[in-house]
Amino acid sequence: MKIFISYRRAEDNKSYIVGTIHDKLAEVFGKENVFRDALDIHTGTKWQEVLDREANSCKVMVVVIGPDWTNLKNADGQLRLFDPADVTRWEVETGLKRSRESKATLMPVYILGAPFPQKENLPPSLHELVDIQGLILRNHPDFESDFARLVREIRTLRGFMEDDIKIASYEPKTIRIEEGPFWMGSEPGEGIPDYEQPQCQISIPAFRIGKYPITNKQYEVFMKEKGISALKIGWPTQKIPEGREEHPVTGVTWYEARAYCQWLSGKTGRNYMLPNEAQWEKACRGGNRYFYPWGDELDPARSNHGEPKIAAVNKYFEQNDYGCYDLVGNVRQWTCSLWGNTPDAPDPKYAYPWDDDGRNNPDESSLVWRVVRGSSYEDEPVMLRCSARTGVFPESRGYPGSRYSFRVVMIEK
Description:
Elements: E1 3-6, H1 9-15, H2 17-29, E2 34-35, H3 37-40, H4 47-55, E3 60-65, H5 87-100, E4 105-111, E5 135-137, H6 143-158, E6 160-161, E7 174-177, E8 180-184, E9 200-204, E10 207-210, H7 216-226, H8 254-268, E11 271-273, H9 277-285, E12 332-340, E13 369-374, E14 389-392, E15 398-399, E16 402-403, E17 409-411
Parallel strand pairs: 1-2, 1-3, 3-4, 4-5
Antiparallel strand pairs: 6-7, 7-10, 8-9, 10-17, 11-17, 12-13, 13-14, 15-16
């Protein structure tokens, strides 16, 4: 996540409020994820190239508009915004273009009582700015509440959030998925099983989900602290096989995956658990209604599907707009949701439409199978669909080419 702050230096020199906005955004999202030219263009670099790179790679452009934003003039008396070479004009033009392309979100932020700009005061290339809902940052004592709203808006508009909480070296990175509706299940079609239907829109509370499946390196910390033999998951020397530190851990039973979540919760003081399948599917869909996480067509560049062996969790591009990796095409992943007692189809009480009606009970009998989501590198292409689901005996480790893994969910307190 990268936030680009566009502003007029002449206005900031009067109030220093842009510096405050930058520092407070950096506290929330991490200083490496917030760009401000005065701080992030270093001596000896070509500033135009840096601005171009940052403006064209950001996820959010915050355009800070003060009282003089539209009427500042050059030395020759020309309004700066009507000068095609004006840097602020170019920044906003870039943000508007990327917003139209759904590559970024442009957010006007009004400070110091600035009026909303009118089209007659803007060049035609910036007229679109007038139609974009902005946010007002008032002075003390309202600044803190207004800024909190700005943070909420950034999180909501992008639909995900990462690098906003500090984590330990052994702790998995998680992405925040905001509360709200999404489409779960499949529409009728060739090869689509009845138990993925009907497709329906449901809403679930906010949660955080692992950006990647749990890696061997992360799982090893758990095994060492708990004194668990690595032979169970197929490490013959009790150590991670060479070069596989960033590969997803595999050969894990449902109970072992749950035990890891309980250990991680106790160690961090956070509330970690296995995702239910609604959480998993919402994260997989990435805010869209696609067939696959990335779109409606297979894309070999987005997963390890069809390769001869398992891959590192970050070998391929992120699979959707939420920034999740390795949801499909590498390893199957446990959820906490119940399936039933037969492999062919879930029990009727666990059928769709999905509801949080007890089907995620972690203390259900070990005879009841659990839902596994995602797909392995050896599975058929149809299993790469966002809605594909299967049932597995919870004490199973999987079979060669499709041994089970997992990712975590964290509920913020």
